[in-house]
Every structure is written in structure tokens, then in C-alpha cells.
Amino acid sequence: MTQRTAIVTGAGRGFGRALTAALAGSDRIVVACGRDPARLRAATDGLPGVLALAGDITDPGFRAELVAAAGDQLDLLVHNAGELGPSPLPALRHYPLDALRAVLETTVLAPLALTQLALPALRANRGAVVALSSDAAVEAYPGWGGYGSAKAALDQLVAVLGVEEPDLAVHAFDPGDMRTEMHQRAFPGEDISDRPEPETVVPALLRLLAERPASGRYRAADLTVDFAADLTVGEPA
Predict the structure, then answer these.
(1) Is there a domain that residue 14 lies in?
(2) Are 205 and 175 in contact (CB under 8 A)?
(3) pLDDT at position 181
(4) Residues paired with residue 156 on neighbouring β-strands, in sequence order
(5) Position 96 in a domain
């Protein structure tokens, strides 16, 4: 039996790294990508069934390489890579427009372009698309206008894709605050040790994939995680 495949972007750190580790050794091959080759190699070294490809998802050639590596058995695409923008987070009245373009390119345009390339395989396998969202997409926080507007746009793309592709499970997943390098950059000099580690949030996403509810936006805080550790992930209903 041919193994199904998954693509996880931003797998070199944070939630992407934790999710890749959780999916490793399951019934699928995981194509994990990240911009920093050394970081990606350290994050994925020794993980069974993981193919690490270093590159930038804003590069059309690299996106094509990812989809080619996943092949015809692709049934899961996780858009985890994102761009925070300037740190400290600037008010919109001071927001550098070139920086905002970079945030939108990584967080909105690249995921859409990658999804477009992956759709034929995802349709054939009745697969799932997951985009990492944020409460900044739905709440107004000072300084979060650039990142939040990008995540709001991503949420809307996910919502429309879910309507246009009824045979796919298309989810925006809000993990909540986590103890990550990106979150630390958003709060330079502050102690964020009270935030949960990404590994503690991964089970909520695994349940979302396993139960395959209607396409839409889901928060980790609303998903219980009391399911068996060996639960099969992402099998079509």
C-alpha cells in the first residue's frame, strides 16, 4: 500500500517542529520545510518518515519542489509558516509598508499559491488543508495590525476554500498563545514562560484532523484532547 504524504511548512521551529515530530512515524511521509537549513536539519534529524527540504515558500520554484516531493499521495497540507513583521510591533501609523508586503507574501499569498499547486492531489485523496490562525485575526490588539490583518485574510481564504472544495476538510486552526521564538519577538524583553509549549497544543490539531468536522475555524482551547495517543490521524470520514 502506498503511503500518504503530508506537507508541513515552517517545520524548523515552534509549532511546525512539534507537529512534524508528532506526525513522524505515522502512516504517512511528512515533507517538512523551513528557511534555515541548519535549523530544519536539527529539528528533523532522526525523525522516521520525514523528508526535510530547506527553502522559502515565497519562492515559486521551491513550492513546486515541495508538491513534487509529496507526490500523488498528498492528503494533508499544513500552512504553519508565517511572518511576524517588525519587532517591537509598530502601530499602524508607523508600519513600514515594505515590511507589511513581506508579511502578506509569506502569510497569505504563498499559502494560497502552494494550495493551488497541491489541490489536484488533495482532491484525489479527499485530503485536508490546515492554516495556522491567531486570535489577532479576530481581535484588535495595539501593534498587531500587520500580522493580524494577514491572519484575517488567511482565515477568509480558508473559509472560501472550504465552500469551494466541499470534498476537502479545510480548517483555520488557532493554537492560542505559545512559548515560541515568534511570540518572544512580539514581546521583546518580556517573560513568556507562562505560555504553553507548542507540544502541548499539537494534540488539539491531531483531534481536528482525526475527527474531520465541517470546514471552518477552530480554536485549540475549544478542542478536548482526551483521545488515545495512537489514534489514526487524518483518515477521511
Answers:
(1) yes
(2) yes
(3) 64
(4) none
(5) yes
Tell me the backbone φ, ψ of residue 31, rounded to 5 degrees. Answer: -90, 110
| Interval 59-113: pLDDT, tens | 999 999 999 999 999 999 999 999 999 999 999 999 999 999 999 999 999 999 9
Containing structural domain, residue 37: 4-222
**Residue 232 domain-assigned (yes or no):** no
Tell me which of 95, 141, 147, 218 is the catalytic residue: 147
Question: 147 catalytic, yes or no?
Answer: yes
DSSP string covering the chain: -PPEEEEESSTTSHHHHHHHHHHTTSSEEEEEEES-HHHHHHHHTT-TTEEEEE--TTSHHHHHHHHHHHGGGEEEEEE------SSSPPPGGG--HHHHHHHHIIIIIHHHHHHHHHHHHHHHTT-EEEEE--GGGTS--TT-HHHHHHHHHHHHHHHHHHHH-TTSEEEEEE--S---HHHHHHSTTS--TTSPPGGGTHHHHHHHHHH--SSEEEEGGGS---S-TTPPPS---
Number of domain units in the chain: 1
Q: Which three cell numbers stand for residue 172?
A: 483555520
Residue 200 covered by a domain: yes
Cell 475527527: give the residue: 211
Q: Return the C-alpha cell found at 122.
A: 488533495
**Domain of 218: which CATH number?**
3.40.50.720
